[in-house]
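Model the whole thing, not chain by chain.
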Amino acid sequence: MSAASESVRPEPSAEERFEYVLRLADTSLVAGQRLAELLGHGPTLEEDLALGNMSLDLIGQARLLLALAGRIEGHGRDEDALAFLRDAPDFRNVALAEQPNGDFGETLVRQCLLDAWQLESYECLTGSSDRELADIAHKAVKECRYHWRFSSGWLARLGDGTEESHARVSAALESLWRFTDELLTPDALDARMAVCGIGPAPALIRERWETRMAAALAQAKLERPAHQHYPWHGKRGVHTEHLGHLLAEMQFVPRAYPGATW
Amino acid sequence: MNEDWVLYEVFIRSRSGLEHKHVGSLHAADARMAIEHARDTYTRRQEGVSIWVVRSSDIVASDPAEAEELFEPARDKVYRHPTFYAIPEDVKNI
């Protein structure tokens, strides 16, 4: 092999690109749906609006990404077909995103862990060699910056708040921490996309996420839980039992009334 | 609503160069949350490029009971309005 051909970056297959974009798309979609479940149930009117705004940001990201995934796949599936007509094993979101809302502290801890990951991921993806993905990342990163600002602010308020609020977010952190391993541990596809210049270097996301989270936890006077091995693989379609219930609610109308519009 | 959450007044500047205008009020636990709530409540439809919040309790207001002594004396002084001057035709934007 000549030196010239060695310097050419490898190109991922359409299947690999499709899978990779679905991971981002489904994570935003499922997280957006979780927050949408809280509409009308927020602890105050203002928080209700805030959660709804973030839900819409996430669903907006999902629409762009699912449309891109559909174009990559080239089988005529649009964003709606991908969102509403796939079953749980076909979803590629990280399992953290599908965890139930629980109390407000649990919702916030889940969002905080996820927001930090999405923020670091999209920041890196703005430099992706995939132009369409980079463009979506440019839009998403601004939204994620606000999401992080919101959730890390609440983490500090609750963690450094009353005895009860501290106990509740500590418990939420302890129970959700096991899902962070999936965010930070790259698999073969993550590594492949990094080599292709499309995704970030795998070690980079872990390093930046850990730094960001350590500062937020310190400010919130919360202990970083011990590392827990992650037995689920949402990125490969192996989900917790919660995803099926979420999808049943999200997908009911388009499945019961195919092609319905309003 | 928790009693620790106090009332803030919200002022939004709709475009660069314009002044901040009072748009409403909201409850928040601290100043940072008040800015975030204002953003989420009052700028969802691109209403603003800048937000001010101020604790409602920090606003010093005139007493409605004193309205007569404060505002009535201005009533018969129409000469304070610049309506008695002839404006040259070349002058725009007055």
